[in-house]
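Re: export button greyed out
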Amino acid sequence: MTIEDIKKHLTTTEFGKKIYAFESIDTTNTYAKTLALQGSNEGTLVIADDQLRGRGRLGRTWFSEKGKNLTFSFIVKPNIPPQSIGVLSLYAGVSVAAAIREVTGITPECKWPNDVFINGKKVCGILSEGIFTQDKLSAVVIGIGLNVNQSEFPSEIRETATSLMLAAGKVFDRFQVLATVLEHLESLYDNIQSNRINKILSLWNRYNRMFGKYISVSYQNTVIRGIAKQLADDGGLIIQVNRDEQKVMAADVTIIKE
Amino acid sequence: MDISYLKKLIRILEKSNVGEIEVEEEGLRIRISKNSLNNIVAVSQPAAVTTHAAPAPASPSAQPAETVPPTAPALPEIKYHEINSPIVGTVYRAPAPDADPYVEVGQIVQKGTVLCIVEAMKLMNEIESDMAGRIVKIMVENGQPVEYNQTLFLIEPV
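Workaround output, generated via the alternate export path:
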């Protein structure tokens, strides 16, 4: 891929203004983090055809076939109070969901906090990393893996993963999809910068597929089960466990019963 | 901490003009005081030991502890550097469940060494040391939820 391939579709002003494109890289997040530490601007984009060490949360691997999908990271410098920092995950997920709806006509589903599904299969994973200097959030790198034209998945995720092509039955121009994702990321970002977090939460609610369902939430060593109720003001997930309500800020969530 | 180390501390205390010494090492805090038993100090660590200096040797040259004026300036309390959580979230002491922890007690870290990750809603935040020093105490367990500003590590500057 070339920077020209990418730029010719872009309609954003800041997001993607500066682009680092690679045929192959360890992970785009790590590169973007280094750039952020060196003072790169907000909206700087790092994109690769192939990630040698694409990763997810807690050291998990992200599979992506070379040249078929989008794997990229971008830098933001959000003016967000530390207690609301998790809202960035909802923001990224819902931006991708809105872009998918625009390019495919299919309404995807958001799973707390930041996964995007189509027909119950994961199409996009997001891993964000905060950079703190002296206890102050100086930048966040948001890494997005979006399956676009991949048709075959490794056997262990075949039942749980999908791509835009598998869902919509046609091939997409990856860079057109990227441009649409960046457009939604940039337009929703105003809500983060002006602290209109409720806007993000209510938009996320439109794509949510969990509320009212029986879910299992696993922490490091604990599993709790209950009904997903709603988002808390800070973006946390409120679960009803028997008669009590609990708020979760970091966990793996699985829907047990529709 | 072995007995000869304790004896050494006691000797240092006896020869000095200060009223007490407090040290903390690997979670064990010990305070040695010249004052009499009616002044036992509270210690907060579970494995802590409080001990008092042996009576000064009955040598004519030794200055009796009692002559230390009660208003003598105390040693400033040893204050370790705290690393606090900048956000609400869950602590991970290792990059992956089967990986080694980033740091252990006793380890020397540099400014910028990653000490742990605090996750809030899949936003992973590496917490770095903001000074060079030795990890004296780890205040959190892997997978534990933490509050804003909760202390994660105590570091002794080196």
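Chain A has two domains: 3-207, 214-257. The button fix ships in the next patch.
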